[in-house]
Amino acid sequence: MKILVTAKRVEDPESKIKVDAAGKGIVKDGLKYKINPFDEIAVEEALRLAAKHPGDVVAVSIGGKEVHEQLRHALAMGATKAVWVNHEGPLDQMGVARLLQKIVEKEKPDLVILGKQSIDDDQNQVGQYLAEWLGWGQATFASKADSLDSENEKNKVPGVIVGDGAKTVDVIREVDGGLNRLRLTLPAVVTTDLRLNQPRYASLPGIMKAKSKPLEEQTAQGLGVDVAPKITVTKLSMPPARKAGIKVPDVATLVTKLKTEAKVV
Amino acid sequence: MSRAAITDLYRIDDLLEPEERAARDAVAQFVDREYLPIVGKHFRNGTFPMEVVPRVAELGIFGAPLKGYGCAGMSNTMYALALQELERGDSGLRSFASVQSSLCMWPIYTFGSDEQKERWLPGMARGKLIGCFGLTEPDYGSDPGGMLTRARRDGDSYVLNGSKMWITNGSIADVAVVWAKVDDEGPQSIRGFLVEKGMPGFVASEIHGKFSLRASFTSELSFADVRVPAKNMLPGVQGLKGPLSCLNNARMGISFAVMGAAVACFEGARDYALTRKAFGRPIAGFQLTQEKLADMLQEIVKGQLLALRLARLKDLHGKVDPAQVSLCKRNNVKVALDIARVARSIYGANGVTDEYPPIRHALNLESVYTYEGTHEVHTLIVGKAITGLDAFGG
User: Which residues partner with B191 through β-bridges?
Assistant: First the structure.
């Protein structure tokens, strides 16, 4: 079973983000970057599926040469091949989905797994656009019934379940008050939620092996995709700084304040 | 500047290859997520967290610089960067890894027979088998040539008698690389033996009452007529150069690793100084605190550059001169110990509790200052290289 996954480069969620002077971007100096955590979950899920249903796991990333770092990370985790879409400059979610669509048409995977969103701009749209344009079924926010402390998780059992003859996959989604199970006919697009799995570390031997795995270069022009953004960021601003809390002398005052000031009771 | 940008003021990161950074970051993530949350409890209780051994094995750290037998075959620099992260957690786990990799797997790999390698290395790389290294004795530390442990040839076996002291992993080890003199002859008769857990007459007992490396097992090994098959002797080396080459190998990693403890202490002390107030302002705003922090950072930058150069020399030439290793070990362990102590003082009274890391690192580094060649012995090795005169033994 051939699986294609994404490996977007995003700011390390633990770094402190500051808006730049122009108010349209962030200060990049001294920032650390890593693979989008939801994409890392996608890579992990693909590797678990590939362990049971052997086939290539292809990781795709779009950006300048620096995204090699995230592709190498996916390869170090165990992906077999990387595709780098060499692109500088802004991209909106439709541009990303168009580029991925072309890569999918070339690579012909049975399944595409992406993060449900990337943690930098939190759009949560690429998987949906991609499925629509490919004409494939989609299951967003894939989760699973087992907890992340379960034996199945320890044994790296995939949460996405492949049907007999690898013609379908079952995906469990968390919905209000319960679980929703979808069966998709392959090929299909799945996007990952946080509780699907706990990604493995890139092992040191894996990092060594990743150096010699294939990394193929593509460009937007080469793929024949117009990526001129239809959406542009006009303004970024920091959330207001949190004010210090106050101490109240007794419960009665607290209740009064909750009623009259916070207006929550 | 961000925390990482301050600690790496000299952009040493830029001197690393992408895969070296990736290896370091993978180990750092493991330490932050899985080791730091539990290490304080283990230090307090004097226990070693066995549950992290398979995780460290999954990361591929055990025997990482070796090739084949399930080992990663990576550069010494990559391996040392991984050790630095383990030490940022606690010297207990780093010591476990150093002993397993450099003092047990390395001699088996370098001096062992094919049969010995096949038998031990794959299991040790996977963390399924644990190793230790027996050289130091109760009365012979810096002068191992005087060791009293003897191996007497008897048919197809050697019979071992004696004892070894301060052995990391001793009580949990499946195999011990034990150095002994054969048939009462001089230091040139020293040979290495693979003594296996459960061999009659071999006892490993835990040493209690340590104030240092509490999250690590330290043992005494005793041998009373232990019959070891001759095929368990390491065929590839004879004399003191056997154990000394193991130590030279391990010390490179240790010199690099201790900067991890220094970084943990520096970053913790800086964060603490910025939030702790005295006389109405953060103590980081006082000149005396700033001098402490400036001294710490200055020594970290120097120590990391020194260690990186040492690891690169080893990758370049396949080996390093003992004087090169000694200079780095004596400098880096000393500055790391000083940094931990000064960090402790920034934490004030809080610094004496195990709620905060500096005293744990300071106590650990007291051991590191003494083990793998004492600070004093490393001074003499450098002194001998400078002058050509041997100041050992008066």
Answer: B180
Which of B3, B9, B25 best probes binding to A when mutated, by most A CB atoms within 10 angstroms?
A: B25
Compute the distance between CA of residue B22 and CA of residue A72 in angstroms, rounded to an integer.
Answer: 9
| Rounded-to-integer distance, Cα A201 and Cα B27, Å | 8
Whole-angstrom CA distances from B352 to B41, B279, B341 are: 16, 22, 10
Q: Which tens digits make up the pLDDT trace of B61-72?
A: 999 999 999 998
Q: Measuring CA to CA, which residue among B105, B123, B60 is closest to residue A209? A: B60
Residue B187 binned pLDDT confidence (cut-offs 50, 70, 90): confident
Catalytic residue (one of B220, B291, B372, B376): B372
Q: What is the DSSP string of B192-217?
A: EEEEETT-TTEEEEEPP--SSSTTS-
Closest partner CB to B26 (pick from A15, A68, A202): A202
Gap between the Cα atoms of B304 and B328, Å rounded: 10
Distance linking the first and last C-alpha atoms of chain A: 54
* Closest listed residue to residue A8, CA positions, set A176, A127, A111: A127
Chain A residues with a Cβ under 8 Å from any Cβ in chain B:
15-16, 30-32, 34, 68-69, 72-73, 76, 200-208, 210-211
Does the structure's ipTM exceed the value 0.90? Answer: no
Residue B135: DSSP 8-state: -
B57 touches chain A (CB under 8 A): no
Structural contact between residues B29 and A35, judged by C-beta atoms closer than 8 angstroms: no
DSSP B129: S
**Domain map of chain A by residue range?**
3-236
Nearest residue on chain B to A209, alpha-carbon basis: B72
State in words which class domain A3-236 has.
alpha beta
**Which residues on B lie below 8 Å from A31 (Cβ)?**
2
Alpha-carbon distance of B71 to B67, in angstroms, equals: 6
Nearest Cα of chain B lies from the Cα of A208 at a distance, in angstroms, of 7
At B153 the three-state DSSP class reads strand
Nearest CB to B18; choose among A31, A72, A205? A72
Give me the mean pLDDT over the B90-116 stretch.
96
Cβ count within 10 A of residue B34: 17
Q: Nearest CA to B116 among B134, B99, B135, B129?
A: B129
> What chain A residue is nearest to B7 in terms of C-alpha separation?
A30
β-strand B157-168 against B150-154: which pairing, if any? antiparallel
Q: Which pLDDT tens digit goes with each residue over B287-333?
A: 999 999 999 999 999 999 999 999 999 999 988 999 999 999 999 99
Q: Tokens at residue A11, please?
A: 């700011």
- Asked if residues B56 and B62 have their Cβ atoms less than 8 Å apart, the reply is yes
Record the pTM: 0.89
- The residue of chain A nearest to residue B19, with distances taken between CA atoms, is A207
Contact yes or no for A116/A36 (Cβ under 8 A): no
Query: DSSP letter string over chain A?
Result: --EEEE--EEE-TTSPP-B-TTSSSB--TT--EEE-HHHHHHHHHHHHHHHHS---EEEEEEESGGGHHHHHHHHHHT-SEEEEEE--S---HHHHHHHHHHHHHHH--SEEEEESS-TTT----HHHHHHHHHT-EEEEEEE-SS-TTSHHHHTT--SSEEPGGGSEEEEEEEETTEEEEEEEESSEEEEE-GGG--PPP--HHHHHHHTTS-EEEEEHHHHT-----S-------PPPPPPPP---SSHHHHHHHHHHTS---
- Contact across the interface for A204 and B59, Cβ inside 8 Å: yes
The yes-or-no answer on residue B34 being catalytic is no
